[in-house]
Amino acid sequence: MQDLSHQYLCTVDETLRFVATDPAYNRMLGYEPGELDGLAVDTVVASGDWLRIREHIRRRFSGEEPISRYIFRARRKDGSEFYVSNIATVVTRDGKRLSVGVFEDLSARIQEEYEKRTQEQHREQVMQEAIHAMSIMSSMRDPYTGRHEGRVGNL
């Protein structure tokens, strides 16, 4: 299996056990190469997401869902959880049906979105404080107009 920089590959058999994983997939989850082979898939899925993931896999193998696309919480070997996206389909190799999945760790994207929201909230707070400060300064200059500007600033 190949080592892609931001996408990780694994294959799972119909017994819901890992058949093969690429080195990047292992690193993403904190495992050594080959350590996941033969382990149950639920080993690396957050318990709250397992039933949903198992249903996707069942539907994929039954043909009801030829291509699966979903996001879930994965569980690293150390127990920490993080979000990944998965696109998977079923292939036949040497007469065995296998689910092949391409995964992407969404941690960086989620962190980036969080930081962007935090920065926007900070800018909004700074703007509100600046408006408040200007209205206080204005009221010190002209009490009548300043009170009016303060009320407008609170709108």
Proportion of residues in extended strands: 25-35%
Q: Oligomeric form of this entry?
A: single chain
- Helical stretch count? 4
What number of structural domains do the residues give? 2
Q: Percent range for helical residues?
A: 40-55%
Architecture per CATH nomenclature, i.e. the level-2 architecture of the largest domain: 2-Layer Sandwich
Mean pLDDT: 85
* CATH top level label of the largest domain: Alpha Beta
Low-pLDDT sequence parts = none
Structural class: alpha+beta
Describe the structure.
The N and C termini lie far apart (60 Å). The chain has a five-stranded antiparallel beta sheet with strand order 2-1-5-4-3. Helices cover 43% and strands 27% of the residues. It is of the alpha+beta class and 155 residues long. The protein is built from four helices and five strands, in the order E-E-H-H-E-E-E-H-H. Helix 3 runs antiparallel to helix 4 (143-154). It has two domains: 8-105, PAS domain (Beta-Lactamase), CATH 3.30.450.20; 110-154. It has helices spanning 23-29, 50-62, 107-141, 143-154; strands at residues 8-13, 18-21, 67-75, 81-93, 96-105. This is Two-component sensor. InterPro entries: PAS, PAS-like_dom_sf, PAS_fold_3.
Please summarize what this structure is.
The protein has 155 residues and is an alpha+beta fold.
Which keywords apply here?
single chain; 155 residues; Beta-Lactamase; five-stranded antiparallel beta sheet; 4 helices; 43% helix; PAS; Two-component sensor; PAS-like_dom_sf; PAS_fold_3
Detail the topology: elements first, then pairings.
Blueprint: E1 8-13, E2 18-21, H1 23-29, H2 50-62, E3 67-75, E4 81-93, E5 96-105, H3 107-141, H4 143-154
Antiparallel strand pairs: 1-2, 1-5, 3-4, 4-5
Helix pairs in contact: 3-4
Protein name: Two-component sensor
Pfam family, one: PAS_3
Domain PAS fold-3: 20-98
